């Protein structure tokens, strides 16, 4: 039986695209897609079969307004859209933005943060994505968790402060790791003159190890061995690109320090 809550999606980017599909698959009627970009709103609305909006003042009435937008515009949109539909439930999906952006603008509000990297063209299994819920009160939290559990098999409650650190950890695990993959592919294609897929088995094994051991235990390479001669030689290869050389040296020193230290992140609790 379809869920009764009518939802309006604020945003039409990567996260909104996957959330819209997951919501529709689980029986939620989507009343509209809002984006400042008419092309983005129309593209996603056409996929879902709903109405696109580029003027927030014309958004239809709904039970839930789900904000999937960039962090820098989220507080402004929350402050302008939420008061127009103050009796509805307003949720954002950001990792580093406090729940308090809705405070004073509506009665019921919260967060449903999916811990995943999204690209429009790459399908994901939303059931496997951990989602983290927070709300302004216990009754609203039940509604947020219920929504999360209809989309994912892993739903946890987490307050805004801890979610900020969760998002930080995700930046290291995904964004920084992917940046390293991109740099590695550039070196392969420009200096080794081979297809970049020669790195694929290495990348897969790097990730697969984490199913059976901690990342710290899986660490290998010259920095883990504190092999200064190799690190110095490799740094010299990067003399023509100082920014990447500095990145290599800083990352290597961080690995050396992590290998010698039991808990270098404990300093975060003192800041």
Task: Tell me what the structure shows.
The chain is an alpha/beta fold. It folds into 2 domains: 7-158, NAD(P)-binding Rossmann-like Domain (Rossmann fold, 3-Layer(aba) Sandwich); 163-270, N-(1-d-carboxylethyl)-l-norvaline Dehydrogenase, domain 2, CATH 1.10.1040. The protein is 44% helix and 13% strand. It is built from 9 helices and 8 strands. The protein has an 8-stranded mixed beta sheet with strand order 3-2-1-4-5-6-7-8, with helices on both faces. Helix 8 (228-237) packs antiparallel against helix 9. The chain is elongated, with a radius of gyration of 22 Å. The mean pLDDT is 94.
Structure summary, number of beta strands: 8
User: Counting H and I runs of at least 4 residues, what is the number of helices?
Assistant: 9
Helix content: 40-55%
Name the strands of the widest sheet in spatial order.
Answer: 3-2-1-4-5-6-7-8
Q: At the first level of CATH, what is the class of the largest domain?
A: Alpha Beta
| CATH fold descriptor of the largest domain | Rossmann fold
Would you list the SSEs in sequence order as H and E? EHEHEEHEEEHEHHHHH
Largest sheet composition:
8 strands, mixed
Our count of domains comes out at 2
- How much of the residues is beta strand, in percent? 5-15%
Shape: elongated
CATH superfamily of the largest domain: NAD(P)-binding Rossmann-like Domain
Gyration radius, in Å:
22 Å
CATH architecture name of the largest domain? 3-Layer(aba) Sandwich
First-last Cα distance: 50 Å
Residue stretches low in confidence (pLDDT < 50, at least 5 long) are none
What value does the average pLDDT take? 94
């Amino acid at each position: 039986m379809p869920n009764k809550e009518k939802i309006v999606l604020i945003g039409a980017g990567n996260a909104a695209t996957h959330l819209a599909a997951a919501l529709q698959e689980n029986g939620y009627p989507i009343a509209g897609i809002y984006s400042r970009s008419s092309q983005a709103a129309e593209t996603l609305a056409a996929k879902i079969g709903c109405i696109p909006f580029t003027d927030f003042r014309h958004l239809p009435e709904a039970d839930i307004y789900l904000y999937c937008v960039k962090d820098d515009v989220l507080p402004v949109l929350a402050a302008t859209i939420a008061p127009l539909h103050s009796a509805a439930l307003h949720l954002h999906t950001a990792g580093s933005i406090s729940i308090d952006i809705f405070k004073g603008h509506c009665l019921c509000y919260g967060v449903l943060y999916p811990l995943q990297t999204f690209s429009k063209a790459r399908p994901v299994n939303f059931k496997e994505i951990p989602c983290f819920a927070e709300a302004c009160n216990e009754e609203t939290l039940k509604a947020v968790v219920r929504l999360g559990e209809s989309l994912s098999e892993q739903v946890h409650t987490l307050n805004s402060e801890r979610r900020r650190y969760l998002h930080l950890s995700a930046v290291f695990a995904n964004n920084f790791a992917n940046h390293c993959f991109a740099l590695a592919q550039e070196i392969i294609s420009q200096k080794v003159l081979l297809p970049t897929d020669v790195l694929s088995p290495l990348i897969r094994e790097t990730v697969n190890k984490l199913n059976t051991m901690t990342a710290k235990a899986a660490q290998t390479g010259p920095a883990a061995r504190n092999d200064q001669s190799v690190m110095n030689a490799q740094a010299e290869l990067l003399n023509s690109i100082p920014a990447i050389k500095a990145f290599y040296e800083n990352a290597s020193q961080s690995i050396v320090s992590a290998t010698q230290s039991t808990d270098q992140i404990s300093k975060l609790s003192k800041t």
